[in-house]
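Hi, here's the filled form for the chain we discussed.

Project: internal
Contact: R.S.
Residues: 406
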Amino acid sequence: MKALMRVLAVPILLALVLSGCWDRNELNNLAIILAAGVDYVDGMYEVSVQTIDPSQTSKNPKGIRSAAILYSERGPTLIEAARKMTIKRSRLNYTGHIRLYLLGESIARRGITEALEVGFRLPGIRPDYYIAITRGYTAKEILSLVTPFEQIPAMDFVKSLAISEAVWAPTTAVRALEMQQILLSDSRQPVLTGITVIGDFRKGQTAGNVKQPKSPAEYRYTGLGVIKNDKLVGWMNESDSKSYAYIHNLVKSTIASTECPNSSERFAIELNRVHTSLKPLVRNGEPAMKLAMQVESNLAEVNCDIDLTKEASIAKLESLMREKVKDVMSDGIRHVQQQYGADIYGFGEAFYRKYPKQWRTWHKDWETRFRELPIEFDIRYRIERMGKNKNSVKSNPDKGGRTEWR
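And the returned structure, exactly as it came back:
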C-alpha cells in the first residue's frame, strides 16, 4: 500500500507544478493592442484602441486591408468603455503589449490621474508604455492617422518619440512607471510631450496619405505640456522645453546655433554630452539653486569668417554658445516659474534631500517659493571637434579669396 502511495504521489505533485495558467486565452481570441487613447466627450469617456490585423503583417498578406484596426466606445468609466467594444468585435482586448497611451487634451485639462488609473491598477498592463498628450486633435483622431514608415501607426509614433528625445531635446519620452513615481511625489510636477497633426487631416486618414512622396498630413511632436495639481495648465515652447531636457540630463544629442562673432551669419554645433547637477543653496535663510553644467560639443556648420586654427577663435565660439545655453536655460525656467508656478524640474526634491529640516517648512508654500527662487549658473562649455576640415570654404574678405583648408 505504501509503495502504491509513493507511485501515485509523483504524478499528483507533477500535475500541481505543471498546471496551465488559470486565465489563459488563445491568440485567435485576442485583439493585441499597441496604442490606446482616451477623450472626454459629452460627459463620457471615449476609449480608442489601435489593434493589429495579424494577417496583414505577414510576408504574404491576404487581400488589401489595413494592418491596424481602430475601435472606439464610450462609457461612464474607462474599463466599461473598453469592455463594451466586444459588442462589435469578436476578440477580447489584450493590453500586455501596449506601447503608447494618448491623453486627449480634454482629459488632460480635466485631470490626468483618472485616465491613468486603469493602467496603473490592472496587472496585465506593463508600466513601460509611453504617455503623451494630443494638441488640437482628439486621441481618437491621432490614432486614425495613416503613417508612412510603419504599417502600424502606433509603432511609428513610439519610434519617433524615442528617437526625437535622443537627438532633439524639446521632446521627452515619459513612461508610465516614471509618471507614477512623479505623481506620488509631493515635490515635483510632471510634463508630457504633445502630439498634433499638420496638413490635411482628412486625407491623412486615408491610404492615399502614404502613396505619394509628400504626405498630405503628418503627425508632429510639439512642446511639453505642464501638469500642475493633476491638470494640464499650459504648454512650453520648443526653446523652453530644451531647458527641461538639459536639467534632467535627457539630452544625448541635439543641435544649437547662434550668431557669429561680429556678424549676422550663424554657426551651429552638435551637443553630444550635457550633464547638469542641481546644487541647492541657502542664502540668508532662503532657498536658492545653482545649476552646474558641463557641455561637450562638435562644430557642425560654420558660416563665419573666422580662423578656426586659432585657439582664441574657438574660445570665442565657446563663449557665445555658453551664453546661448544660459539664455535658453534662464528663459525657460523663468517662464515656468512666472506663468505656471509648477516645479517640473525637481528643485523641491533636491532641497528635500539636502536640507530635510528646512524643507518641512518650505514645503507648505513651495509654489510661492519656487516662483521667486533665484537661479545661478555655472556652465563649462567645450568644443572638442572641428569636423573633417577646420576653416570654412566660404570666401574670406580679409584675404581676398577662399580660406585655406587645414
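Let me know if anything looks off before we file it.
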